[in-house]
Amino acid sequence: MTSSQLPDTVDSAVIGAGQSGLATGYHLTQRGVDVVILDANDEIGASWRRRWDSLRLFTPSHYSSLPGMPFPAPRWSIPHKDDVADYLADYVSAFELPVHTGVAVDRVEGFEDRYVVHTSSGRIVACNVVVATGAFHHPRVPEFARSLDRSIVQFHSSEYRRPSQIPDGDVLVVGAGSSGAEIAIELSAEHRVWLSGRDPGQEPTRPGSKPDRLVTPIMWFLANQVIDVRNPLGRRVRDRFLDPPRGIPRGRITKRMIAAAGIDWVGRTAGVRDGFPVLDDGTVFDVRSVVWCTGFRADFGWIHLPVFGDDGFPIHARGVVESQPGLYFMGLPFQTTLSSALIGGVGSDAAHIARHIHDRQRSHAVPASG
């Protein structure tokens, strides 16, 4: 349920109505906590609808559910991105979650023992704030992209929707992770495509395949129960996956599929020469288009609280900022486990944070006089 009228005060404010924010809102409302969920988009699921047309999840619908509501699709089907957006909107309606759309948050600061959340619709004073905006907010494009010849059409993957956006001519796709590989294969039907970047590796099975049905339950158990940052193995996997030169293994698209599509896989794009992209080995590509699948960077500059490390990410323990009581984060990569940022994995962290907020609320309650 959406609303435009904001309260002046609330026990808990959740910033972001994606899967992380909605899962947190669900657990808070189940515990009777007074909460509002704020989202800058005009509709639920908008961030999913804006992604490229052919995008699907990497996990089957059975492993893509939020707490309290199974994903409404056959167990082993692979949901389309619009199916996910519809599911999130239905989730809000089913549990009458107090979501306020079209409300952008531009500042969070401390006020005595509470927080002030400054929004485009006014300010809210809250005892608890849950930042559920994820970790990657702004497209990352190398500085040298500005030096490319003006005749070259450039897109970041966040701007790419469909092949019709790409003019005739050769294409360089920079970034060989999941997004880059999928977009490269899609474009290869009508263009000569080069895929540039280091190989981050690939998952052992392709989503939806018969082998995947055997492997997925094992992988899901490992992602939720074993690869946990509270143990040495989980920390090693986290450091390996979040190391930018390495990245997360590619899902769905294999090296064999890339080769079969006639795509030439080349080295790292390192700069510009005479207006054209050049690899680190000196090879220059005379292309008409470049698609930057180079990821995103975090931006928590609107949170005016001393809770961030040198890397710009919050210092937390399973989403709880111990140095700033009442401040929480949701949806961070490896917040607790490998699955923490996935639709089917956010529920565990959300339940933990909701329980922490509820316990904090009870500890601050004024005993009734008798």
Written description of the protein model:
- The protein has 370 residues and is an alpha/beta fold.
- The protein has 2 domains: 9-137 and 298-363, FAD/NAD(P)-binding domain; 141-292, FAD/NAD(P)-binding domain.
- Helix content is 25%, strand content 20%.
- It contains 8 helices and 17 strands.
- The chain has helices at 19-30, 46-49, 81-94, 178-187, 210-226, 232-241, 255-260, 346-363, and strands at residues 9-15, 35-38, 99-100, 105-111, 114-119, 122-131, 138-139, 153-156, 171-174, 193-196, 264-266, 269-273, 276-279, 289-292, 296-297, 303-304, 327-329.
- Strands 1, 2, 3, 4, 5, 6, 16 and 17 form an 8-stranded mixed sheet that branches.
- Helix 4 (178-187) links the parallel strand 9 and strand 10 (193-196).
- The longest helix has 18 residues, at 346-363.
- The radius of gyration is 22 Å and the shape is globular.
- Mean pLDDT is 92; it is low at 366-370.
